[in-house]
Design a protein that fits this description.
Keywords: Actin-binding. The chain is an alpha/beta fold. Helix content is about 40%, strand content about 30%.
């Protein structure tokens, strides 16, 4: 029955979402095990899968280095910051990474599957669409989080 449900919901978006994606997201959100998670679309499986996770001690630079320069990805980044009141806070960003040099087919596939995948991740605070590293600078996250 689960397979039947999954394939029928795929009809509108084209891609399913591996259960593992939600589990890893919850580890980032609740247990703070990961600083970031990078997801990719596996065209053979026709679903979004986890490509890479970054440990809690990894930096924003580590995250940026992990994103491919010429291919699309979805990513979740757990951004820690201190408020003006000196409170430690954390905001979760959903990032749709679509470099301008990536294949047209990849851009289309990621664009048409984004909403369904994004809905699976309950608890994301902000969403960023980026086509090059300047649109995904740490200052962009800092400005959005405040």
């Amino acid at each position: 029955m689960a397979t039947l449900l999954r394939s029928s919901s795929n009809a509108s978006s084209g891609m399913g979402v591996a259960d593992h994606c939600k589990d890893i997201f919850l580890e980032l959100q609740r247990k703070k095990v990961h600083r970031y998670v990078i997801f990719k679309i596996d065209e053979k499986l026709k679903e979004v899968i986890v490509e890479k996770t970054g440990g809690a001690a990894e930096s924003f630079d580590d995250f940026m280095t992990a994103l491919p320069e010429n291919d699309c990805r979805y990513a979740i980044y757990d951004f820690d910051f201190v408020t003006e009141e000196n409170c430690q806070k954390s905001k979760i960003f959903f990032i749709a990474w679509s470099p301008s040099v990536s294949r047209i087919r990849a851009k289309m596939l990621y664009a048409t599957s984004k909403e369904r995948f994004r809905r699976e991740l309950d608890g994301v605070h902000y969403e960023i669409q980026a086509t090059d590293p300047t649109e995904l600078d740490i200052e962009v996250l800092r400005d959005r989080a405040h």
